[in-house]
Amino acid sequence: xxxxxxxxxxxxxxxxxxxxxxxxxxxxxxxxxxxxxxxxxxxxxxxxxxxxxxxxxxxxxxxxxxxxxxxxxxxxxxxxxxxxxxxxxxxxxxxxxxxxxxxxxxxxxxxxxxxxxxxxxxxxxxxxxxxxxxxxxxxxxxxxxxxxxxxxxxxxxxxxxxxxxxxxxxxxxxxxxxxxxxxxxxxxxxxxxxxxxxxxxxxxxxxxxxxxxxxxxxxxxxxxxxxxxxxxxxxxxxxxxxxxxxxxxxxxxxxxxxxxxxxxxxxxxxxxxxxxxxxxxxxxxxxxxxxxxxxxxxxxxxxxxxxxxxxxxxxxxxxxxxxxxxxxxxxxxxxxxxxxxxxxxxxxxxxxxxxxxxxxxxxxxxxxxxxxxxxxxxxxxxxxxxxxxxxxxxxxxxxxxxxxxxxxxxxxxxxxxxxxxxxxxxxxxxxxxxxxxxxxxxxxxxxxxxxxxxxxxxxxxxxxxxxxxxxxxxxxxxxxxxxxxxxxxxxxxxxxxxxxxxxxxxxxxxxxxxxxxxxxxxxxxxxxxxxxxxxxxxxxxxxxxxxxxxxxxxxxxxxxxxxxxxxxxxxxxxxxxxxxxxxxxxxxxxxxxxxxxxxxxxxxxxxxxxxxxxxxxxxxxxxxxxxxxxxxxxxxxxxxxxxxxxxxxxxxxxxxxxxxxxxxxxxxxxxxxxxxxxxxxxxxxxxxxxxxxxxxxxxxxxxxxxxxxxxxxxxxxxxxxxxxxxxxxxxxxxxxxxxxxxxxxxxxxxxxxxxxxxxxxxxxxxxxxxxxxxxxxxxxxxxxxxxxxxxxxxxxxxxxxxxxxxxxxxxxxxxxxxxxxxxxxxxxxx
Length: 830
Description:
The protein has 830 residues and is mainly beta. 4% of the residues lie in helices and 53% in strands.
């Protein structure tokens, strides 16, 4: 911590003597030429922005030299993206003309591809989850909140364990970023959720398709890039207080954020707390073992000066979750795994307790430090990012002592150089990035507890070099590049004496009775990846996209070395050390239209992956059947697979009838393993086909009303049955079709004199008809035990169902507009 304080002090001193350029301009209606007040002018790369005044003028006094993409947004107009060049010691001007439209989300600037562009010109399909969409949603985790986007789904084993899928691929094939920092918190594990505070996320970008070129092996399926709160407007302090309650599991959440911007010194501080008791569904009643708690504190400090920008973020998060195991008696009533105070069954007070320590639980901790820098060098920008993360894991069966205890430390790094030719318009991005990872198991717990060592102590060094070129023509954007990755795993051997008994001990190889838990290994994986793609802007707002990509992914540590009972997934998992790296070849094609009254996009993909790695239930060599230590036995194998499908959206937003909006999106994924039997020809846990429809009615604002931006919405999500499964030995079971209905309402309470928002209210009801259902990717449907003895799940009705009807309430109180310095006079616009 002393080193962190010293680093921050040096960081602040560094920026005192530097001065930045200014940018001024106007935003006007392209038809009438009148200024547009209240338009948001934003620079995503810098995370700073401002709003236009009453006549449509704006000014930003804190701008570093360089070339940036500017985004201009306001309700009723198409989002405008424009390249802005900020030159040294000059007052720069930028005048923008905006066209009327109710569609805005399809042209939002994205940055996760390495080159800043917009969604329509990106060669790969991209979805944007806006801040408003997140506020209007009721969810337990940030992954829950984005899981109905086109091509996106999620696996879960209970609250706090959700992991994203993109185009049917999940876990460490999907790279999750928070402000560019890789979320390395047990991405390979089924029962470890993404450790992100949902209240800290402002919006998100989702790239559907291989992004290995920019980010390496973990982006084989795509990237989910979460962004935190933008910095305050120069000279102001802003913030918010958010409180939330959900009726089904009693979720209570609170988050407080405050930040400021003083002459380029930016800062933001957030603190959040969430907690919930067991959830309820119409099939199971209250589901024992689904309570959870989470706390997070996050601080960001930054400088934006003439030489570029530098910012450092520090985050401390702890999540304590229960993972249900489905233990019941013969009548289906939930039971304790072991008697509690002489009781065999949880009572109503236990179900409603905000205490995840009653049942077997997990303690998950995450420490993050992330230092990002962009420095002007010559005609380009040099980016240098380095961080540190520590992920802590404790599996606690009973009491307070963990059986599975380990920590993972990562040092992610990135060095890149970006330059845009002033005459040619060619953008070059080149660099090197990767991570150094260190895992360490804690010592054997004292008797009578038995240590659960699922993976060995290991180090993993990942590094990749890449180069990306992009050229923008009037109607055509072409981009492509190459990457080469190096990945080295070194694992330590482990020997146990008296394995599986209270006398279990970690011993040396020569100790009496020593049994091999993990052999030592040293595996190196290398491979190229690359892509080439283009987008073409057709007349009448139509456009085409085509992208061809080669991906590369080294096996994860659990796929190589697992050797034990995974308490969270209720299975014995066995790794395979001689697995080869996955190599994929994918083609993505999209056609869309971004019109004034309608917008749509249809994305098709075909993905062929060699050496695709997945776990399947097999006959155990130990016991002669598919059970080991009383739980199912799974082993990681590899095969060639073909995954194909399509996704997209069709939205109706008539400009002349602005009070109604109809949004639809769909996802279909099909997987196939060539040369297999009927029971083994599909990839396990391929998501079921899905259609989502939402109708939103917007009330007209009146100057005399205290209610503004009021809406009422109704939604439906249809899931079809999934019968294309890996059914051998009940590795997977088919799922049933179901339809969910949702409804919501929201409004802003404003001061009628100043027009300032006092607070915002959002009410959202999910599963309105309270149906009992089990999603195909809800892995808790496989959890079933009678009187503590695991039972093979043979149909969907035996396991744990998803949450029933849930009504969520959010209140958001903004804190904004407080001036920290006297503003300069508005400059005359050209």
